[in-house]
Design goal:
This protein is mainly β and 330 residues long. Helix content is 4%, strand content 35%. The protein is built from three helices and 19 strands. Strands 10-19-2-3-11-9-15-16 form an eight-stranded mixed beta sheet. Strand 2 and strand 3 form a beta hairpin.
Length: 330
């Protein structure tokens, strides 16, 4: 039976259209933020005063989450991927969770690759490329993605600054269907730069914090995993997940790159959520990423227009709602 298959995207990832004016497809790259990292920005107290301590970006875990159990592949087909764990609490309580670690994901409605152009023409609040935070707006000159991150095969490098390590998962060439903004930030945001001036055309507005992509399937949806960090002699075989919908109801899954606290039973109120999000992590995706111990440019920060302090900001740009960001090819 025909059904709608829908993916929600949120957290630390970038969207890279193949053509900004009229895209045929979009690349979706999840940023590698598995380890805590010290940011340039200083912490602020509840009154908005800057302290002497640097902000620490918590580890973000790249996850695929689903509610309805997928149908197993036939015995002679590619084996299905087992779930890594089940969410214990939070908005995904009871759902299965997969960790996406150096995985290429391929979308195959009814078992076929999609050749038609992606639709990004939703109006108003649902327009994805219009409402997204863009590196070209908030930090001109740092909007280009390293083309190696979009190539078919990413090989691990011997040096510790391997380019492979900058992303943890990706969907290359998401095409067909419709991409739109599923959720805007609760409050209007402005852009600050950590006390330093920079040229920004961002203005003050609400921004996309969750995107959705959907496509119509006649009978089934297959999501195929393959690894991009192995050489050709040791690459594990790809694995599939397969969904059908006998009643014709929509099938929804979530791809998120976010803190894992609530998934393992930690209350969302503890520890206190970071009040701000920023774009510092995206500098590493440029064609010439910053060398070790090289200070990043002045860091732009989206700040909800409600004054500082957790009370006005928790849940706006934190807890899996760090803004997805648009970068472009050269």
């Amino acid at each position: 039976m025909a059904f709608t298959f829908r993916i929600y995207f949120s957290g630390l990832f970038v969207v890279v259209p193949d053509n900004l004016d009229a895209p045929n497809s979009c690349h979706m790259l999840l940023v590698n933020s598995l380890l805590p990292r010290k940011l340039q920005r200083k912490k602020r107290d509840s009154q908005g005063n800057e302290t002497n301590e640097n902000e620490i970006l918590d580890p973000h875990f790249p996850m695929l989450i689903y509610n309805d159990a997928p149908v197993g592949a036939p015995p002679d087909a590619i084996p299905k991927r087992p779930a890594d764990f089940r969410a214990l609490s939070g908005d995904h309580k009871g759902r299965n969770v997969y960790l996406l670690l150096h995985d290429d994901l391929e979308i195959r409605p009814d078992g076929n690759k999609v050749s038609s152009a992606i639709n990004v023409s939703s109006p108003g609040d649902h327009a994805p490329l219009t409402n997204m935070a863009k590196m070209s707006d908030v930090f001109p000159g740092h909007e280009h993605i390293d083309p190696i991150l979009l190539t078919e095969e990413l090989k691990p490098k011997a040096d510790e600054n391997s380019r492979v390590g900058r992303i943890v998962s990706r969907i290359r060439g998401l095409s067909g269907g419709k991409l739109y903004t599923a959720e805007l930030s609760v409050k209007t945001v402005k852009i600050e730069s950590g006390g330093q001036n920079f040229n920004s055309t961002f203005g003050e507005r609400r921004i996309s914090v969750k995107l959705a992509w959907e496509i119509e399937c006649k009978n089934e949806m297959i999501l195929r995993w393959s690894r991009f960090d192995f050489d050709s002699n040791s690459t594990p075989p790809p694995r599939d997940l397969r969904w059908t919908a006998d009643a014709g109801d929509p099938v929804e899954i979530w791809i998120e790159n976010r803190e894992i606290d609530t998934f393992i039973g930690v209350p969302s109120s503890y520890p206190v959520a970071r009040a701000l999000a920023d774009f510092e992590v995206f500098f590493e995706l440029e064609p010439q990423p910053l060398a070790a111990n090289t200070p990043a440019p002045p860091v732009p920060i989206p700040v909800p227009l409600s004054g500082f302090g957790v009370g006005g900001q928790a849940g706006t740009l934190h807890g899996g709602l760090c803004p997805p960001t648009l970068m472009v090819t050269s």
